[in-house]
Amino acid sequence: MLVLVINCGSSSVKYNLIETEREENVCKGLIERIGAVTSIVKHEPAGQKPIKDTRVIANHSEALQEIMTYLLDTDNKFIDSKSDIKAVGHRVVHGGEMFKDSVLIDEDVTDAIRQAFDLAPLHNPPNLKGIEAAKEALPNVPHVAVFDTAFHHSLPAHAYLYGIPNRLYRRYKIRKYGFHGTSHYFVSRQYYKITDKPVKDTKVITCHLGNGASIAAIDGGKSIDTSMGFTPLSGIVMGTRSGDLDPSILFYIMEKEELTLNNLHALLNRHSGLLGLSGYASDMRDLIAEAKNGDRRCQQAIDVFCYKIKQYIGSYTATMNGCDAILFTAGIGENSPLIRKQSLQNLNYLGVEIDDTVNEEAKSGTIQKISSDKSKIDVYVVPTNEELVIAIDTAKIAQAKSQSPWV
Ligand code: AMP
User: Fold this and answer.
1) For the chain, does the N or the C end have fewer beta carbons within 10 angstroms?
2) pLDDT band at 120; cut points 50, 70, 90
3) 368-369 and 378-381 as β-strands: parallel, antiparallel, unpaired?
């Protein structure tokens, strides 16, 4: 089934056209700076060089029109008509407590996504804009919402409750939700395909290390804890997000720096993390390059990042009473031997041993074991594919819908 996957940010639309039976990406692209004087458009047919251009794109609706025009272009031959696309899958960041699985989008679902605006003010509003724009562009196909939070619905109460008055959970649903669910799900499933152990007995720690980063403990196929929380701000240090903090720091900074809530929000989400620590960059490649040149603060940022990863690995090994495999994924996890090695340094008590040569030579885009034969825990680099998870879920639901109107 040909499925269009849409992932909308406040000023961007990312898309993938995926053939689900063959699990094949046909074409993908990104439109950025929507609403600015000029927008940047990138289309990338599978196996070919990306085509970049600039256009005036005022809103998400126009972005979807641009994508459809490109896909329908007779020179490209991706689709002959809109009806070749059988379903649209939407990445929705926050499903609140309501959505444990992907769902067909109807009015109730859009209302529920709207209700979760408070929980994810940066993500859910643009996600909904994307849904509305795509429904306008493709009104006759099923649209499916796939939630970043859904995979973590299996967290037990002792893992998702915070130590604050329970009334706040009951009233405002303040609890840990966790994010990057489709990625943690996908990479753990990739590992299950190559291990002989039954899934129900397998304990895995997945490290999604990208610009946003989170770690999950997956026991018997189910997420039982994860480092992000009520929002994607908590957990390990990220590109520009602080990760875990002593909450008292917030009152202290607000008072000392006379910050408003908005200022504080920006400080923790956009000016902290690797960028804040290094005072130089949020991009790990830049930090590694500058640390090599002797920049002390860039080195410190890398050290903090790796230390936090190690802390979570230790914590989740305790949580699960063991660990069979540690899986590294996303931009940093898939591409940086240095970060993988440093995060796993001095974990001898767990019996983790990396094969340095294999780690250094691991190629991007393939699953690769990087632990030595003596290691008691398997360590793998596993490329993530969140779009494929969204496309497959969408195809499943669209198929069911075609068989019964009650789906
Ligand atoms: P993502 O959000 O998954 O696209 O990941 C983005 C992050 O991956 C950025 O911090 C990049 O610097 C980092 N990254 C990509 N390639 C490499 C690499 N070869 N070495 C270190 N970090 C990398």
Assistant:
1) C
2) confident
3) antiparallel
Burial class (CB in 10 A: 0-12, 13-18, 19+), 292: exposed
Read off the pLDDT of residues 368-380 as tens digits, 9 standing for 90 and up: 999 999 999 999 9
**Ligand 1 pocket check: which of 214, 284, 292, 334 to mutate, most ligand atoms within 8 Å of Cβ?**
284
Residues with CB under 6 A from ligand 1: 210-211, 239, 283-285, 288, 330-332, 335-336
The answer to whether 26 touches 34, Cβ cutoff 8 Å, is no
CA of 339, closest atom in ligand 1: 21
Residue 354 has pLDDT above 80, yes or no: yes
Average pLDDT of span 318-324:
97
Mean of all residue pLDDT scores within the chain: 96
Model-wide pTM > 0.85: yes
- How far does the centroid of ligand 1 lie from the alpha carbon of residue 64, in Å? 28
Task: From 12, 30, 285, give the residue whose CB has the most ligand 1 atoms within 8 Å, as the site to mutate.
Answer: 285
Annotated active-site residue in 101, 111, 148, 373:
148
Note whether 282 and 240 are within 8 A (CB). yes
CB-CB contact of 25 with 389 (8 Å): no
Q: List domains and CATH numbers for the chain.
A: 2-147 (3.30.420.40), 198-386 (3.30.420.40)
Q: Quick one: DSSP state of residue 356? A: H
Tell me the pLDDT tens digit for each residue of 148-176: 999 999 999 999 999 999 999 999 999 99
The token pair that represents 268 in the structure block: 């923790």
Task: Tell me how far apart the alpha carbons of residues 262 and 294 are, in angstroms, rounded to a whole number.
Answer: 35
